[in-house]
Write a structure and sequence with these properties.
Elements (H helix, E strand, L loop, with lengths): L1 H33 L42 H15 L3 H14 L4 H13 L3 H14 L6 H11 L2 H22 L3 H14 L4 H14 L2 H13 L4 H14 L6 H7 L5 H5 L3 H19 L2 E7 L11 E7 L3 H29 L7 H6 L5 E8 L6 E8 L1
């Protein structure tokens, strides 16, 4: 009888060890496969800042309205007659009559840069600087490299207020400063520089675009969305509009912090709830709870022991034992399920971070951007009769 119980106990011990190792090995294999290095989500845009700020043709000139079609030169006989009359009036010094003739000719033929030039000269002679600036700017928009372009720029330099010229130069300085700070990975400072660009040149869409990228790189996704939406409304090309639209879709996805996912995973399943996978969280919580319950389950065994007293009379008695037969197996399974849940949550958060990147990192900004969260899992099983385990390393 004693020999049978001894064999049974030995078999039970071997079975427990084998089942525990089998469960642990299967879990570790799943963890190792799941923890393989993640690739960034396909299709995510990689945007670089705009390097040129689109401004007016010269200091004091405004950008044309978005969607405004360029003026078309028309072969209009009446416009030619009025332009000739205006030139004759200018020759005899009647600038008011010249201005009126040129203004009527410009209505009939708005795409003629020569009429714009003559009308600007007439307004300049009449000391109407605002209208003269408008016509000279219109000339540069029609013919930026025309015969009178150099003369127009010289005249604009003389009649445009000095404050406006300094403002135009300051915008360019702020734009270049923002680019330098962005390339250096100093995104908060770059946002401040591009704030100045947007304030002083609200019609230059590149200021919104670059500020949106800097905000996205610094983690201000809601503010970045606003800037990129503003830029998309004024995007100069279809390709630009499509690329920015894809970036906006990426910014709208939820993003989770790996460190927070790790901390919440200390309570099994809560990491999955945080990263938007409640079903996985329930499964992890149920698995850990079930395995822990199995580990704590007690078994009561009652056996009858044959005994003969010293007088030779049979005196059998019963022996009751209580033990947790599956304590080791259940505890190992609970730990493995909790570990798997933690890794799953951290990897989900890390995936959301990688898929949320829309900014193409330069060499300098990449060096300052810090290290991404990585998870390394190395399962190992010792020799027969030895120990088994898992090596886990997390880097944030």
């Amino acid at each position: 009888m004693h020999q049978s119980r001894s064999r049974f106990a030995e078999w039970l011990a071997v079975w427990r060890l084998a089942s525990w190792r089998l469960a642990l090995s299967a879990t570790l294999f799943s963890v190792a496969v799941y923890s393989a290095p993640l690739q960034a989500q396909g299709g995510a845009p990689s945007l670089t800042p705009k390097r040129t700020l689109t401004t007016g043709a010269a200091p004091g000139c405004e950008l044309p309205a978005v969607g405004q079609a360029p003026a078309v030169r028309r072969d209009n006989a009446e416009a030619r007659r009025l332009a000739a009359a205006g030139q004759e009036a200018a020759l005899i010094g009647d600038q008011a009559a010249a201005r009126d003739a040129f203004a009527r000719a410009a209505i009939l033929n708005p795409g003629d840069e020569r009429i714009a030039y003559d009308l600007g000269r007439a307004n300049e002679e009449l000391a109407d600087s605002a209208k003269a600036i408008g016509e000279f700017c219109r000339y540069l928009s029609l013919s930026p490299a025309g015969r009178e372009a150099a003369d127009v720029r010289d005249r604009l330099q003389r009649i445009v207020p000095a404050a406006a010229q300094r403002g135009a130069a300051d915008v360019q300085v702020a734009f270049r400063l923002g680019l330098a700070l962005f390339d250096d990975g100093r995104y908060a400072a770059a946002i401040g520089a591009f704030d100045d660009v947007v304030r002083d040149a609200p019609t230059a869409s590149e200021g919104y675009f670059n500020r949106g990228l800097a905000r996205a790189a610094s983690g201000s996704r809601t503010a970045a969305l606003q800037d990129l939406e503003q830029y998309r409304a004024n995007a100069p090309t279809i390709d630009d509009r499509v690329d920015v639209g894809r970036a906006i879709e990426v910014l709208r996805r939820p993003v989770y912090r790996p460190g927070v996912a790790f901390a919440r995973s200390l309570v099994p399943g809560f990491g999955q709830f945080y990263t938007g996978h409640p079903v996985r969280g329930v499964i992890v919580l149920a698995a850990v709870g079930g395995a822990a319950g199995l580990a704590l389950t007690q078994q009561t065994t009652t056996i009858t022991v044959a005994y003969v007293d010293p007088n030779g009379a049979p005196a059998p008695y019963t022996r009751t034992t209580t033990e947790r037969a599956y304590f080791t197996t259940g505890l190992g399974a609970a730990a493995a399920a909790a570990l798997f849940g933690m890794i799953d949550a951290v990897k989900s958060a890390n995936r959301s971070q990688r898929g949320a990147t829309i900014v193409a990192r330069t060499a300098r900004s990449a060096g300052r951007s810090g290290t991404a969260t990585t998870v390394a899992v190395t399962p190992w099983v010792g020799v027969p009769g030895g120990s088994s385990g898992v090596k886990l390393s997390l880097r944030f």
